[in-house]
UniProtKB/TrEMBL annotation:
InterPro entries: LOB. Belongs to the LOB domain-containing protein family. PROSITE patterns: LOB (PS50891). It comes from Ziziphus jujuba (Chinese jujube). Residues 5-106 form the LOB domain. This is LOB domain-containing protein 12-like isoform X1.
Amino acid sequence: MGGNSPCASCKLLRRRCAKDCIFAPYFPSDDPHKFAIVHKVFGASNVSKMLQELPVHQRADAVSSIVYEANARMRDPVYGCVGAISYLQNQVSQLQMQLAVAQAEILCIQMQQEPNNIVVQNPQIEQDPPDHHHHNDIIDEEKSYHLQNNVNLPHQYLNFASSSSNVIHDSLKRESIFGYDMVS
């Protein structure tokens, strides 16, 4: 800042803040904690080199990223941002699986209700004119076939939904223990 009060980096490093201080625009004196974390994780010299290599219009975004990564490294020294990203990706995967199971359950409920709709439609078929008698017999046979098979389908789908959720949970347990799924 070169005058009244030094920037946060010059204050922390106990040096005079020059007019052309590379840190002054990004680390104001009223937020010393921001630079302290960046300095602790990356070092002032490394951050200075990174900023000098960038065009001026990209430096603010770079500082924002550096500060974010430094905070992530303070919380998780080994993985930093990657740990947070991995955690969020796992959460998204689990939620996608829960959504798929919920959609399968909705489908099962809809299929359980479908036979009732078919029964309601059958009386309308019988009221057609007599000249369509042969055509009506074929439709009745098809409806009867579908009705008989649909009665069994929801149970199959329900069993599928519950067994698939067990497979999903077992797979996640193996993943969390071994880092990958052992079963192909």
